[in-house]
Design brief:
Structural class: mainly alpha
Strand content: 5-15%
Strand order of the largest sheet: 1-2-3
Distance between the termini: 158 Å
Number of helices: 9
Shape: elongated
Radius of gyration: 64 Å
C-alpha cells in the first residue's frame, strides 16, 4: 500500500527512515511513538525551565535581602557619626588634648629609648661573657684532647712494650723447654737429643697456674687421662719399644772385652722387618733406603720426621744393631 505524501513528510520531520518495504500501518505506529517521545521530552524541558527560573528567583530575593541589610548598616553608621559630631569638644579643648597627647608621646619615646639602650648594654655584656666563656671552653677542650691523645700514645706504647715482653717471655719459655727436653734426652741416652727436641716440643702446653710446661695425655675420645712433666714425657717416649732406634745401645766396648748391662738385646722392629721382608723391599739395588717407598713415608709421618731424617735414624739404628750382632 502506497504511503501518503503527508505521512512521509511527517516521518522526515521526526527523523524516521522509510524504505520501500515499510508498511503504512507500521509507519503510522512509529510516527505515534516518536511524537509521544517528543512530547515527553518537551514536558521534561518545561519542568527543567521551571526549576531554573525558580532558582534564579531565589538568587534575586537573596540579593535584595542583602542590599536591604547593607543599607540598614550604612544608615546606622551615619547615625553614629552624627551622634559623635554632636558631642565633639570645641577647638580649644582639641588643642589642649593634642598637646597632652604630644607630651605623652615624647615621654613614651624617651622611655623606650632608655630601655633600648639598657637592653643593648646588657646584651653587649652578655655577648662579651659568652665569647669569653666559649674561649675558655675551647681552651679546655684542646687541653683535654691533647691529654687524651698523649694518653692514647702512652697506652699504645705500653701495649707494644707488653706485647714485646710477652713475646720475649714466650721465646724464653720455648728456649727453656727445648733445653730441658735436650737435657733429659741426653740423660736417657738418645742418639740425637736435638731430634728429640723437634719430636716432643709441640706436645707441651704452658700451664699458668703451675708455671710450667705440661704434656696433657688424652684418649681416643679426647678425654684427659694423664698429665706428664718434661722429664716424664721424655723418659716415657724413649722407653717405648717403637723408639728403640732413637736410643743408644746399653752395650759398652772396652778393647776386646764386652760389658753387657742387659742379658738380652731386644730388637723387635728388626725381627719383624726380617719376617715380613719389608727391609729389603724398602731399599734400592745399592742397599740404601728408598725415600719414595710407602712404608718409609708412612713411618716418617708417624714419627713426625721428614723422610730424610727418618732414613738417617734408620741407618743409625741398623749400624747399632750390626755392631751388637758382631759382639755376640
Amino acid at each position: 500500500m502506497k504511503i501518503s505524501e503527508e505521512m512521509l513528510k511527517k516521518a522526515k520531520e521526526l527523523g524516521l527512515e522509510v524504505d520501500e518495504d515499510t508498511e503504512e500501518t507500521d509507519l503510522l505506529k512509529l510516527i505515534k511513538e516518536k511524537e509521544d517521545e517528543v512530547t515527553k521530552k518537551k514536558d521534561k524541558d518545561k519542568d527543567k525551565d521551571a526549576d531554573y527560573w525558580k532558582e534564579e528567583a531565589n538568587k534575586a530575593f537573596e540579593a535584595r535581602d542583602l542590599a536591604k541589610k547593607e543599607r540598614r548598616d550604612v544608615q546606622k553608621r551615619l547615625k553614629d557619626i552624627e551622634d559623635e559630631l554632636s558631642s565633639a569638644p570645641d577647638k580649644s579643648s582639641v588643642e589642649t588634648m593634642q598637646k597632652q597627647l604630644d607630651s605623652l608621646t615624647k615621654y613614651k619615646e624617651a622611655i623606650e629609648k632608655e630601655r633600648e639602650e639598657r637592653d643593648l648594654k646588657d646584651k653587649t655584656e652578655l655577648e662579651r661573657k659568652d665569647i669569653e666563656f666559649n674561649k675558655k671552653l675551647e681552651t679546655l677542650r684542646k687541653e683535654m684532647e691533647e691529654g687524651l691523645n698523649e694518653h692514647k700514645k702512652e697506652l699504645v706504647a705500653s701495649k707494644e712494650t707488653l706485647e714485646q715482653k710477652e713475646t720475649q717471655i714466650r721465646s724464653l719459655r720455648k728456649s727453656n723447654l727445648s733445653s730441658e727436653v735436650f737435657q733429659h734426652a741426653s740423660k736417657f741416652g738418645a742418639y740425637n737429643p736435638t731430634q728429640i727436641v723437634k719430636l716432643l716440643s709441640d706436645r707441651f702446653e704452658w700451664d699458668e697456674d703451675l708455671s710450667k710446661f705440661v704434656n696433657y695425655i688424652k684418649n681416643d675420645k679426647g678425654k684427659l687421662v694423664d698429665e706428664l712433666n718434661v722429664e716424664e714425657t721424655v723418659k716415657s717416649f724413649l722407653e717405648d719399644d717403637e723408639n728403640d732406634n732413637l736410643v743408644k745401645s746399653k752395650v759398652k766396648i772396652d778393647g776386646l772385652h764386652r760389658k753387657d748391662s742387659d742379658a738380652v738385646i731386644k730388637d723387635k722392629d728388626k725381627d719383624k722387618d726380617k719376617k715380613d721382608g719389608l727391609v729389603q723391599s724398602m731399599k734400592t739395588a745399592d742397599g740404601k733406603y728408598d725415600p719414595t717407598h710407602p712404608a718409609i713415608i708412612k713411618s716418617a709421618e708417624e714419627s713426625r720426621l721428614s723422610v730424610e731424617d727418618y732414613i738417617e735414624v734408620r741407618e743409625m739404628r741398623d749400624s747399632k744393631m750390626s755392631k751388637v750382632r758382631d759382639l755376640k
